[in-house]
Amino acid sequence: MDNFSALMKLDELVSSMKKKEEKSKTRDAIVIALAILGVVAAVAGIAYAVYRFVTPAEDEFDDDFDDDFNDDELIAFGDEDEEDEKDAKAEDKE
């Protein structure tokens, strides 16, 4: 009878060890998954920082673009052409 109770205790001990191993395996899997996510986030952050460093600032680009193409100048330029043509025709008539 003592052997039977000893075997029962041994079985309980083995089963508790298996449960601990399963828990540790799931913890290891979770830790690995979180580590991979951390590495991906770090690489994405570095890539974004390099992208921001390499591309020109929007303010500088907008200023250059606005200087080259100003709507007011285009309208005024079109009006000047018509006035220049009228002046040229008037000079030709004189």
From TrEMBL:
Q: Which UniProt keywords apply?
A: Membrane, Transmembrane, Transmembrane helix
Bilayer-crossing residues are 29-51
Protein's name in the database: DUF4366 domain-containing protein
The protein's organism comes out as: Stomatobaculum longum
The organism's lineage is: Bacteria, Bacillati, Bacillota, Clostridia, Lachnospirales
